[in-house]
Recover the amino acids of this structure.
């Protein structure tokens, strides 16, 4: 117990400021590799599994959290800057294999990696964390509204997955499934609440499954949208139809992403098995 308290105290004083960080941080843990990008305020900007690109890496495809204010055109948060209000990173801390550490351009973990970033995004204080362990990516976003905010909608989480994923398999709350072939036609083939989805690349056998967990209930206006574009298969978790959010309001959600391999014949069965353990 004493060791844990000492470690937590050390971690509390080991957070660094964004100006002290490398521009790019490549993190490897097991079979998974991610890149954190200064252009995206150290949000993720690439995901690999066994050397295969699962999450894209480009300047115009954003991961993370954004929101829209009523009456203001454009997004606030993640890599977006079009409104003139950008994410301000207050501090970041890193832990590798249970030990607090400094950031480096390449960070290699044997068993686990953890990052916690505290940012100010407009009137919202955002605490965002990433954890890698057992070839699984965990992301948690906690929001604290410092002022009353007239929110139009919130993208709680965004993942621009590779266009090599051509099969979509979603689990609805009622236990039924939605199966879609992805063809990069700029359409939105899925726009309903899906607590769990899976994507599959038949050429390589690469697959992933993601599960959502809302800490304060998902609300009646949550939905999940997949945008099937030539640049990415972008998975959005969206909250809409807000009343003005009062100062002091808290909200939080987590996303768990499991990476695996499958075959065209077994993909849906493997996806359903993976859903059961998430």
């Amino acid at each position: 117990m004493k060791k844990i308290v000492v470690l937590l105290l050390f971690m509390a004083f080991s957070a660094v400021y964004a100006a002290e960080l490398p521009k790019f941080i490549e993190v490897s843990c097991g079979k998974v590799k991610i890149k954190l990008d200064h252009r995206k305020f150290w949000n993720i900007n690439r995901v690999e599994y066994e050397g295969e690109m699962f999450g894209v890496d480009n300047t115009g495809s954003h991961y993370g959290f954004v929101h829209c204010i009523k009456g203001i055109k454009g997004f606030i948060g993640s890599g977006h800057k079009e409104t003139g209000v950008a994410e301000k990173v207050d501090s970041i801390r890193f832990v590798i294999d249970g030990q607090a550490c400094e950031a480096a351009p390449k960070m290699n973990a044997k068993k686990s990696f953890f990052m916690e970033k505290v940012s100010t995004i407009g009137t919202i204080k955002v605490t965002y964390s990433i954890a890698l362990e057992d070839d699984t990516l965990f992301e948690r976003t906690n929001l604290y509204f410092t002022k009353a905010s007239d929110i139009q909608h919130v993208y709680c989480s965004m993942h621009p997955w590779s266009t090599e994923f051509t099969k979509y398999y979603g689990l609805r709350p009622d236990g039924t499934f939605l199966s879609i072939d992805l063809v990069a036609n700029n359409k939105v083939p899925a726009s309903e609440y899906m607590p769990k989805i899976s994507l599959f690349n038949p050429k390589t056998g690469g697959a992933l499954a993601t599960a959502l967990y809302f800490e304060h209930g998902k609300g009646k206006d949550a939905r999940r949208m997949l945008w099937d574009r030539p640049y990415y298969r972008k998975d959005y978790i969206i909250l809409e139809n807000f009343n003005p959010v009062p100062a002091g309001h808290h909200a939080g959600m987590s996303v768990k992403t499991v990476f695996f391999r499958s075959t065209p014949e077994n993909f849906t069965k493997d996806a359903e098995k993976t859903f059961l353990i998430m």
The chain has two helices and 20 strands. The helical segments are 2-12, 267-276. Residues 2-12 form the longest helix (11 residues).
